[in-house]
Design goal:
The chain has 157 residues and is of the alpha+beta class. It has a single domain, classed as Alpha-D-Glucose-1,6-Bisphosphate, Chain A, domain 4. It is built from 4 helices and 7 strands, in the order βααββββββαα. Strands 1-7-6-5-4-3-2 form a 7-stranded antiparallel beta sheet. The protein is globular and about 45 Å long.
Length: 157
């Protein structure tokens, strides 16, 4: 499955970049995050409660930055598993200046879902993904469009 979209953020590109490429900050906006473990500058794991319809599980995602060209382009890979299901995701984001201190974020995600979640919840995946995406970007916008000191909160180490 392929998902993509554009989001205009009322914040300078450098600030948007710093937030979106910092796992401690951006995971605050991902729904149902249970924990985050930053392994090094390139890799982290995140535990997320996710699913479709009645089929839910707690996924442990291994996330790795494949490319980061500040402050304009990044590519990240995430692989998550629960017994009987797996999710592979490749996401690309491009940040551009939208004038007057605003940022245009263009994102694309290729997602592969396998196992029980795909077979049982296959027809519901699009709706669930749309809901999560809306929640994620509403939170990102609210954090980045708040005064600069308000985005300093992060997951404890």
């Amino acid at each position: 499955m392929r998902f993509q979209g554009d989001v205009t953020i009322e914040a300078p590109r450098e600030r948007a970049w710093a937030f979106l490429t910092d796992p401690r900050q951006v995971t605050q906006c991902a729904p149902d995050v249970q924990s985050l473990n930053v392994l090094d500058d390139q890799r982290f794991t995140v535990v997320v409660r996710a699913g479709v319809g009645a089929v839910k599980g707690t996924f442990t995602f291994a996330v790795m930055w494949l490319e980061r060209i500040a402050p304009e382009h990044a590519r990240v890979q995430a692989r998550g598993k629960v017994p009987g299901s797996a999710v592979d995701m490749m996401t690309v984001m491009t940040l551009g200046d939208a004038g007057e201190g605003r940022t245009l974020l263009h994102w694309e995600a290729d997602v592969s879902v396998k196992g029980v979640i795909a077979s049982v919840g296959g027809r519901l995946i699009q709706g669930a993904a749309d809901k999560v995406t809306q929640q994620l970007f509403a939170c990102v916008k609210s954090k980045l469009e708040a005064p600069a000191s308000a985005t300093a909160t992060a997951w404890p180490d």
